[in-house]
């Protein structure tokens, strides 16, 4: 069987898929902290097949520090202890993000290039909408990439979040009936966000472009589940399970400015689903969606 793990980390987003052959797909990784590093390494080491964890692909949704910083440091530090077969990512151009974010984008992009250089024979996928990647029993369909602008007005107000990639992963079961397959929707920090200065509509774009093709068994709640979601998007995906890459207290509490994080307009659209927060690791059997262990 293949499994999907949401790791319990300090901050960010860290998903690890173990394929039927024992290799892994890692999605993002989280912020760079000792706890996050240990959580990722311990999971890989405890579940590896063979002497070293074999990573079929390390995928990055977008180059924000709470998604890419751990990957950049972990790959360099653990290069002698792991094997990476491929990298997959899509980064915006500096002119497509706020001026205040351009330096950070340059730093994370440079660090990512340094990390990839540790595995010079690895395949590198520059993700584009419409791409289809296959790793053992998992098929990845890329839905949107960083070149697609879904924010108005455009000049000097786009964030890296506004250029996040999204993809749908199909866990094939090897049966004649494709309805037996299980699916996982990954949207990184794609979001709908309306303010006085900008209108971000990445989730609306996905609904308008793909419609019912978005239906998935498991959903990664957009932007950690804290802000920018869309009830229309969530109702279209209609998942059985929702993964929130935030703690339950953060989702139901307040941030530093006293604003309640929980956005009832979209999180309540997931109220009928089974929700797992980042307080504890959860591992799903992607054959029947049961919890492992």
- The structure class reads alpha/beta
Strand content: 15-25%
Describe the main β-sheet briefly: 8 strands, mixed
SSE pattern, N- to C-terminal = EEEHEHEEHEEEEEEEEHEHEHHEE
Task: Give me the count of strands.
Answer: 18
Low-confidence stretches: none
Count of alpha and pi helical runs = 7
Distance between the termini: 14 Å
Mean pLDDT: 90
Highest-level CATH class: Alpha Beta
Level-2 CATH architecture: 4-Layer Sandwich
CATH topology: Metallo-beta-lactamase, Chain A
Amount of helix: 10-25%
Task: Using the CA coordinates, give the radius of gyration.
Answer: 18 Å
Q: Specify the CATH homologous superfamily.
A: Ribonuclease Z/Hydroxyacylglutathione hydrolase-like
What characteristic shape results from the CA principal axes? globular
Please give the structural blueprint.
Blueprint: E1 3-6, E2 14-18, E3 24-28, H1 34-47, E4 54-59, H2 65-77, E5 83-84, E6 86-89, H3 99-116, E7 123-126, E8 132-135, E9 138-144, E10 151-152, E11 166-171, E12 182-186, E13 192-194, E14 199-201, H4 202-210, E15 218-220, H5 231-237, E16 241-243, H6 248-252, H7 264-267, E17 274-276, E18 282-285
Parallel strand pairs: 3-4, 4-5, 4-6, 6-7, 12-15, 15-16, 16-17
Antiparallel strand pairs: 1-2, 1-18, 2-3, 8-9, 9-11, 10-14, 11-12, 13-14
Helix pairs in contact: 2-3
Structure explained in plain terms:
By secondary structure, this protein is an alpha/beta fold. It has one domain: Ribonuclease Z/Hydroxyacylglutathione hydrolase-like (Metallo-beta-lactamase, Chain A), CATH 3.60.15. It has 7 helices and 18 strands. It has helices spanning 34-47, 65-77, 99-116, 202-210, 231-237, 248-252, 264-267, and strands at 3-6, 14-18, 24-28, 54-59, 83-84, 86-89, 123-126, 132-135, 138-144, 151-152, 166-171, 182-186, 192-194, 199-201, 218-220, 241-243, 274-276, 282-285. Strands 1, 2, 3, 4, 5, 6, 7 and 18 form an 8-stranded mixed β-sheet that branches. It has a 7-stranded mixed β-sheet with strand order 8-9-11-12-15-16-17, with no helix packed on it. It has a 3-stranded antiparallel β-sheet with strand order 10-14-13. Helix 2 (65-77) runs parallel beside helix 3 (99-116). The longest helix is centred in the middle third of the chain and has 18 residues, at 99-116. The chain starts with a strand and ends in an 8-residue tail after the last strand. The mean pLDDT is 90.
